[in-house]
Design a protein that fits this description.
181 residues, 5-stranded mixed β-sheet, two-stranded antiparallel ribbon, 7 strands, 31% strand
């Protein structure tokens, strides 16, 4: 049975846009937070339109709004992030042909919004995908710094980040040689 957020293309008007607005329940937000491995999703909305482009193609234009909480990658303190992202998809039964070579390098089509048109469009799945792509990979609390960790065996001179920079010593060498700018 399709979800309530699933639209059947055959049921949509071909003359005007179909508006939609998804606002998941608290229970849905908890499940989605676990699925996306974030601490919490405080707010989530997905609003927009699905419009016919011609006799075969459809265009989804929407806005994803969310407030998520994740642990800081440095301190593990909670970091709250606000996400406001436009989401665009073009559904067509005429997808460009891609080579069928397994493991071969494939050039992606120029239009990265193209999706194959099927009998239904699952708005909740689109919302979840857009949210997953928008979540910061390495959230950092304001002012959190990783610092510098230096490791070496006992008695050896530790190698620092500055030591491995290829041009780090040029300024010192220039100063010793009496060079000027």
């Amino acid at each position: 049975m399709p979800r309530p957020s699933t639209l059947r293309i055959a049921d949509l008007s071909t003359r005007r846009p179909t508006e939609f607005a998804l606002k998941p329940t608290a229970e849905d937000l908890e499940k989605l937070a676990r699925s996306l491995d974030v601490s919490a999703i405080r707010k989530l909305s997905f609003t927009g339109t699905l419009s016919p482009l011609n006799s075969a193609d459809w265009r989804l234009e929407a806005t994803l709004g969310a407030t998520i909480v994740q642990p800081c990658v440095v301190t593990l303190d909670p970091v709250t992030t606000r996400i406001d992202e436009p989401v665009t998809r073009t559904y067509t039964p005429h997808m460009p042909d891609l080579p069928d070579a397994a493991g071969a390098e494939v050039e992606m089509p120029e239009d990265d919004t193209l999706e194959p048109l099927t009998e239904t469009i699952d708005l909740a799945a689109i919302m979840e995908e857009a949210l997953a792509l928008s979540i910061p990979a390495y959230p950092r609390k304001d002012g959190a710094e990783t610092g510098e960790a230096v490791f070496t065996k006992p008695g050896a001179t530790p190698l620092t980040d500055d030591d491995v920079k290829p041009f780090a010593g040029l300024a010192d060498l220039k100063a010793k040689m009496g060079g000027s700018d």
